[in-house]
């Protein structure tokens, strides 16, 4: 992330905040949407975002109830508070949507992402990549004489930090799953 960080919930992580042209603060929110697992549902959810010019920073979806044919879509998006409220209301009106939860405002949540990093290099760069991977608890899942593929699970910020450190060491490619999130507690 650059010097302009997103205000997350009610806690700012930077002296700078992104604002829209009207001066409203742009916040990042994580939404959990429980839907019927049927064809076309994901397209309808994505269509809601694209049709209204909303951006999706991260999107994950998987079936969570095989017998009930339900899936959970986790969406990370950003906007002013009125825009976020509008997104939640419009999602709730889509017929196969059963629940919409804003994990950002409903209390503490756990967010994790899986990422794979391909790093090429030789000599000292290779040794430094392995040292940093150990510090970040990244696993080597593939190795050749000229490259490594590291696997890491963590917060999006941890994934970003590891990528930033690997770039000068020969980072060639990244694959990220997107955020999976659950609220904490009972």
From TrEMBL:
Biological-process GO terms, alphabetical: isoleucine biosynthetic process; L-valine biosynthetic process
Pfam families in the cross-refs: ACT_AHAS_ss, ALS_ss_C
Superkingdom of origin: Bacteria
PROSITE patterns according to UniProt: ACT
InterPro entries per record: Acetalactate_synth_ssu, Acetolactate_synth/TF_NikR_C, Acetolactate_synth_ssu_C, ACT-like_dom_sf, ACT_dom, AHAS_ACT, AHAS_small-like_ACT
Coiled-coil intervals: none
Catalytic activity: 2 pyruvate + H(+) = (2S)-2-acetolactate + CO2
ACT domain mapped to chain residues: 30-105
CDD domains reported in the protein's UniProt record: ACT_AHAS
EC number from the UniProt entry: 2.2.1.6
SUPFAM superfamilies, A to Z: ACT-like (SSF55021)
Functional note: Catalyzes the conversion of 2 pyruvate molecules into acetolactate in the first common step of the biosynthetic pathway of the branched-amino acids such as leucine, isoleucine, and valine.
PANTHER family, A to Z: ACETOLACTATE SYNTHASE SMALL SUBUNIT, ACETOLACTATE SYNTHASE SMALL SUBUNIT 1, CHLOROPLASTIC
Protein family according to the UniProt entry: Belongs to the acetolactate synthase small subunit family.
Name of the protein in its database record: Acetolactate synthase small subunit
Organism of this sequence: Pseudorhodobacter turbinis
